[in-house]
Design goal:
- This protein is mainly alpha-helical.
- It is built from 18 helices and no strands.
- Helix 5 crosses helix 17 and helix 6 crosses helix 16.
- The N and C termini lie far apart (53 Å).
């Protein structure tokens, strides 16, 4: 219990203290015009209130990651708390802040174009491919997982797939609408409602953990590996819990709000703050999963994450509260899946310089996107093995994208003469994570564990050395930022 409470307090202090440090290093200009004020096309560049931007950013990035991922991470016990807290404060929130603010400084550009500006054309094209593939995979995952939750919640005949099929169809149709219409017409209006469901989910389950006394059964931190199958903590925990600690998907989402916020001073609460909120959500679900099933063995035997979500919600909050809580969990992936496809549309439009103000141009990009997405959905629902394969590749590509985004932020800081260590250290750490994981994971090269770890360390050391010599030293103070406009003029 103490580990959980201390972790939540640490996340809040992380926003108050470290978030302010990150903001000071970046050096905001509250008087400069944002893309929303300069461009304002009524579709993607639209000024919205700060409170709404925070809610939209949070719901964009949340998905099932801080819930399903936290449940998976809970199999390692309180080690999950450590990764969520440290990852969120020093890596994930920093990653999200720079992804959003650099987009804001570059006319709302998508992450691939930002990477290209600060790291060069080859990384730009790598990120273009990576980001679009990742966004489609995210869309697919966030179609199937909320449909699974709804299927487990709504009563129907044993073996019937009707609820699942209807859920899939409705979600896909909503995604198409949300991808095409202006951001303030659907997303801007529905997200506050979804936000209320999420608040009931998080606050309600936390309160009931204390009321039922289950909070006292949350295990305290230990250096032992508590995973039932003795799976190594590193790097598998860092891949299992992405959203809630650090997630490259967020780098694709931050530009959406970079095109909508009114002032650079809103960046800390919108980008850094939303990530901290997500970390708190991940802490709640990791704690509930650890406490409710009597330990890691019981959690492992409970079944799929969707089943765990349903049981925890209904057992703790009763039928009505449970339904509301599960709807909150459904809202999480739905409100990330819609913006995943929207972000993919914007990424392709940025690459092709294809004006998105005419609605027919939006359809020309969206139709092929959804064609590919629906094919992958059909593949994913074919079997549990198919879905797990998509999830694992999504998880790895997600963290790889985050790693590249952190290196791009490091290059920006070095080239502008600012303190680059705040992004270089997490970038180096994540380089070890993604390299070692793909070398030793079942879906990767399946090399012996120590071979993968040592290789990951060597690769990270080489990348770090190249960054210091080629960018931090040779290109220091070579980039001068320009203020493109003054707010209110």
């Amino acid at each position: 219990m103490i580990s959980f409470i201390v972790g939540v307090i640490a996340l809040i202090l992380g926003y108050v203290v470290y978030g302010k440090i990150v903001e000071k290093i970046f050096v905001i200009n509250p008087n400069s015009k944002t893309p929303a004020g300069r461009i304002n096309d009524g579709v993607d560049f639209v000024e919205i209130p700060t409170w709404k931007a925070v809610l939209i950013q949070f719901l964009n990035i949340a998905g099932t990651g801080p819930i399903f991922g936290a449940i998976a991470g809970a199999l390692w016990g309180p080690a999950a708390f450590v990764w969520i807290v440290l990852g969120c404060i020093f890596a994930g929130a920093v990653h999200d802040y720079f992804s959003g603010m650099l987009s804001l400084r570059n006319e709302g550009s998508t992450i691939a174009e930002i990477v290209g500006k600060y790291l060069g054309d080859i990384p730009r094209w790598i990120m273009r491919v990576f980001s679009i593939v990742l966004l489609i995979l995210v869309g697919v995952v966030f179609v199937t997982t909320p449909a699974q939750v709804l299927d487990s919640l709504i009563p129907h005949a044993e073996g019937s797939r009707i609820v699942y099929v209807i859920s899939l169809t409705v979600i896909i149709l909503y995604y198409i609408i949300a991808t095409i219409l202006p951001i303030d017409k659907v997303i801007g209006r529905l997200y506050p409602i979804f936000g209320a469901a999420l608040l009931i989910m998080g606050v309600g389950i936390t309160i009931m953990l204390f009321v039922t006394g289950e909070v006292a059964t949350i295990p305290e931190f230990t250096f032992k590996n508590l995973h039932p199958n003795a799976m190594h903590i590193f790097p598998f925990l860092c891949i299992s819990i992405a959203c809630g600690a650090i997630s490259g998907f967020h780098a694709t989402q931050s530009p959406l709000m970079a095109r909508c916020i009114k002032s650079e001073k809103d960046g800390r609460i919108v980008f850094y703050g939303a990530m901290i909120i997500e970390g708190v959500v991940a802490m709640i679900w990791a704690a509930a999963a650890m406490a409710h099933f009597g330990g890691q063995e019981g959690l492992a035997a409970a079944g799929a994450a969707a089943v765990v979500v349903k049981k925890v919600s209904i057992d703790l909050m009763g039928p009505i509260g449970g339904v509301l809580a599960v709807l909150g969990v459904v809202a999480c992936p739905v409100t990330s899946g819609d913006t995943a496809f929207r972000s993919a549309r914007l990424a392709i439009a940025d690459i092709s310089k294809f004006d998105q103000k005419p609605i027919k141009n939006r359809f020309l990009i969206a139709v092929p996107l959804f064609f590919v997405g629906i094919l992958l959905v059909l593949f994913a629902i074919g079997s549990t093995a198919n879905f797990n394969m998509i999830w694992r590749y999504f998880a790895w590509s997600n963290q790889t994208l985050a790693t590249i985004a952190l290196w791009a932020a490091s290059a920006y800081l070095a080239k502008t003469g600012k303190l680059f260590w705040i992004t270089t250290i997490p970038a180096t750490f994540m380089t070890v994570v993604v390299t070692s994981y793909i070398l030793i994971a079942p879906e990767g090269f399946r090399l012996p564990y120590m071979v993968g770890i040592v290789t990951g360390l060597v690769v990270a050391a080489v990348v770090f050395g190249l960054f210091i010599s080629l960018i931090a030293v040779k290109q220091k103070n070579t980039l001068k930022e320009e203020v493109v406009g003054v707010a209110g003029t």
